[in-house]
Amino acid sequence: MSVEIVSPTPPKQCLTEGMSTIPTNDSSTSDDEALFVCYPKCSTCAKARTWLNEHHVDFHERDIKTDNPNAQELTLWHKLSGLPIRRFFNTSGQSYRSLGMKDRLPSMSLEEAVELLSTDGMLVKRPILIQGRRVLVGFREEAWVEALL
What we know:
Layout: E1 5-6, E2 12-15, E3 21-24, E4 34-38, H1 43-54, E5 59-63, H2 71-81, H3 94-98, H4 101-104, H5 110-119, E6 128-131, E7 134-137, H6 141-148
């Protein structure tokens, strides 16, 4: 299986079964194929990529730094994941610390948090795997096994 790095392009709309439109910047991702949003230099993302390849999960890769998720994508992914918005923040990252997010995040509205995440891909927890109605944030092997296999 080959992996293709998707370069930034204007957002487009695609349909996924039983859902309204899902925004994506990847024009070649099919309904069965996952979108793997990652940072190429991240060791956790590398482990997740290896896991996906070993388990024959088809995916397209998107660099979170050069093609960060927009507010519409983040809003949808947050809703589909069922996770609190704080789980979408890269709490160990330099951007998170320099912005003082530990103190600011609890008082932010969902809209404010999503807007902030959409301004800097390095604020976003990674990797994110989107496949149909399933959104996985971060890489925990046992959660990925349960969700994907």
